[in-house]
Amino acid sequence: MSASQLVSIFPGEETVFGAIRELREAGFAIEEVYAPYAVHGLDRAAGLRRSRIGLVTVAAAVIGAIAFYLFQDWVSAINWPLNIGGKPYSSAPAWIPVVFETGVLAAGLTTVLALFIRSGLYPGKKPRLVDPRVTDDRFAVVLDIPHSGFDIDRARRICRRNGAESTAVTPAPEPAKRPRRPPVRSLEVWR
Q: Residue 134: inside a domain, yes or no?
């Protein structure tokens, strides 16, 4: 990431799509697009990378379902086998609904946890917004300004031609700092 960014504020999603299309055709790389609500196809139009949260969800569902299936099999057939109504100890068809629901539960909880970890959302975090109106009714397109070879005036003209209310060069936000962990000490120090 560079030291500064060009932030353009737009009033609606139609103007954002036009500006994104024209900026990409002109060869500008879009760093981020902020929107007050989810807009179908905006990430693809901006050339942003596809989210991997779906892979996390599927992996958690499969791992959760397999783990609970093995747990049920262990409890019913190995640890505490009971003959109930002549059914076999390992009765997989009876476990399918519970295994499915456990997979859904594991997927949901892991997805929320992964989203919070990846987004850096935690209690007391101060928001880093490019413009406070992007949470209400405005859209923002952020272009990263490299150290050389970036035509700011051309990018501003493209944005204004497509309906930008304002364009401003702002310093790039500092990357989120992770809290430092205390050094690990041996058990003798704690006694």
A: no
